[in-house]
Amino acid sequence: MTPTQSLPGMSAVRRGLDVDDGGAQMRVQLSLTTDISLAPAELWPLLSTSAGLAPWYGTVTGDLREGGSFQAPGGVTGRILEVEAPHKLVLTWDRGGAAEPLLISVDPEDDGTSQLRLRHTVTMERAEFERIGPGPVAVGWEITLWSLAAATGSWSGTCPDPIAPPTAQWLCGPEGQDHVRAWSVRWAAQALAAGVDEATARRGEHATADAYGA
């Protein structure tokens, strides 16, 4: 199977990328949107409470209220800037560098389900962007959405096959590696659409796959 072939769940996410060339630094905005077969009131606790996050995302500690700070897996810390339950969370997301803006929005659909959108704005040094592109960060969010879908069955309308939890074993196995390569290809395509030259986009594609062992 090649990365350009259809894979389960791949079309469940709509991707967007904006790249602002600021010279020595690049402002990169990643957007991932998906439909979740839960009402906003059902989805909200899974995104905003420690108990709801733990089964599918991992242990998040701290004061998960507006103005509070938190600690998340992978050494991430942040602050909760704005809460509009059950529709919007505005956070800072610090992966050991600058505090980056992260928006999580939940919009109701006519059929009682939800549209979930993540928008993460990352500042990258030009040399880093030209070496790896946006893919490693973007694939991290792909895996996050995959984990949510696996835990809740919330992609059943668009993906009839069961979604396997993205454990380390799954990611290292044939199915996980196929998905990593396909995600890498899709984010390289987003980079091209955002005006990144092809050589840089393809270099980022390969660096992203390498970062996840694919």
Please provide a brief summary of the model.
36% of the residues lie in helices and 30% in strands. With 214 residues, the protein is of the alpha+beta class. It has an 8-stranded antiparallel beta sheet with strand order 1-2-8-7-6-5-4-3.
Observed structural traits:
214 residues; alpha+beta; 7 helices; globular
Describe the structure.
With 214 residues, the chain is an alpha+beta fold. Helices cover 36% and strands 30% of the residues. The protein contains 7 helices and 8 strands. An 8-stranded antiparallel sheet has the order 1-2-8-7-6-5-4-3. β4 (69-72) and β5 form a beta hairpin. α3 packs across α7 (198-211), α4 (135-152) crosses α6 and α6 runs antiparallel to α7 (198-211). The two termini are 13 Å apart. The mean pLDDT is 93.
SSE blueprint:
Elements: E1 13-21, E2 25-36, H1 40-48, H2 50-53, E3 61-62, E4 69-72, E5 76-84, E6 88-94, E7 99-108, E8 114-125, H3 126-132, H4 135-152, H5 168-172, H6 174-193, H7 198-211
Helix pairs in contact: 3-7, 4-6, 6-7
